[in-house]
Amino acid sequence: MKILVVLLLLPLFAHALEVDEKLTVRIIRTSESRKTLMINRGTEDGLVEGDHARFIVTAGIVARAVCVKIAPTRSVWSVYRLVNADFVVNDAVMTIKITPPVKITKDETQAIVQEDVPTKVATDPATLGIPLADGAQDITTEADLRDEADLRETEITTIVERNWEVFGNFNISGLSSTAKVDNGNSFKNSQATHHIGFGGELYAQNERAWYSRFSLLGSVDIMRLNAQSYSGEAVQNDVTEFSFGTNWHPGSMPSSVLTLIPFFHLSAHFGSVRSQYEHGFGVNNDVEDFDATGSTSGIALGFGYKFYTSKGFGARALVDYYTRNERFKRDDQIPSVQADRTVTGPRFMMGISYRW
């Protein structure tokens, strides 16, 4: 009974690529002759043993091969037509297009050229080849030219192989202020703010997986707020926070380029805070300067947009609702009285990024 259930459910999880379907791949390893390739795609991506495919880059068709060995995330391909060996190198990113099977012959008399070497090779089929049967001479057909045009479009619409990203958020003002009274007293201080954040984000490479629309992120944020009252009293707050969370991209895939990518953001953060007080000439003139230190914790929930170029450079904008709980103790009191403060409200942040 269990075997029957498994057999019934298996088709729900299995999905073989159809003829003319395309997939972005990365070459992991090649043989010296460039006629055996290992790529980073396997059964999880819909490939099956025996698949035939064209390997294509922007410049045109690179090779034609058949899948001879496969695993969930890897597959080995035997190249039976090598058009331009110089593109077949480790870590090369290209597109494969599933094609109908081609009969291969071992008859040496059918070979156009006996050797194919990894140097720049002309694209004229008359100067290329290994033993092929009828039906394999299709490198320069009108369909192939259309494939090349389609590829130029797809090459600039996805950066799925660039699944690591670094980003930075900046918000800085450097103002100063001076408070004076008629008796000649004056107090000069800062009236500035800054928020500097750096982080990283990890995206899934398998866009067929259910989790491919989610990304994981972590960041560190350094924030400072300085303020001075009319009476000269000044307060400086320094916050350092570490954040961990996820972004969900419900619309466009996070690998899309030259388009706005909407995303929802959720993160939790914790860190430390330091608050400093300097007296002025007002009612609290007799209060001594003091410092207080503490810890922070909170969450942020928001919505934003990302934008990427085909080179991996990007920009982002985020509006979130932010809450931070701070717990202080004065440094000059033993035992110190504990004080709590809550900071909440909307934020608007913009940043730049790079994916590789």
Number of strands: 16
| Strand coverage percent | over 45%
N→C terminal distance = 48 Å
Shape: elongated
CATH architecture of the largest domain: Beta Barrel
Mean pLDDT: 78
What is the H-and-E element order?
HEEEEEEHEEEEEEEEEE
In CATH terms, what is the fold-level topology of the largest domain? Porin
Instruction: Identify the strand order in the major beta sheet.
Output: 7-10-11-12-13-14-15-16
Relative helix content: under 10%
Rg measurement, Å:
31 Å
Low-confidence stretches: 2-14, 110-116, 119-145, 147-156
- Strand pairing plus helix content: what structural class? mainly beta
Main sheet characteristics: 8 strands, antiparallel, barrel
The helix count comes to 2
What key phrases describe this protein's structure?
about 350 residues; mainly beta; Thrombin, subunit H; Porin; 2 domains; six-stranded antiparallel barrel
Could you explain how this protein is built, in words?
With 356 residues, the chain is mainly beta. It has two domains: 15-155, Thrombin, subunit H (Beta Barrel); 164-355, Porin (Beta Barrel). Helices cover 7% and strands 50% of the residues. The protein is built from two helices and 16 strands. The chain has an eight-stranded antiparallel barrel with strand order 7-10-11-12-13-14-15-16. Strands 1-2-5-4-3-6 form a six-stranded antiparallel barrel. A two-stranded antiparallel sheet has the order 8-9. A hairpin with a 5-residue loop joins strand 8 (176-180) and strand 9. The longest helix has 14 residues, at 142-155. It is elongated, with a radius of gyration of 31 Å.
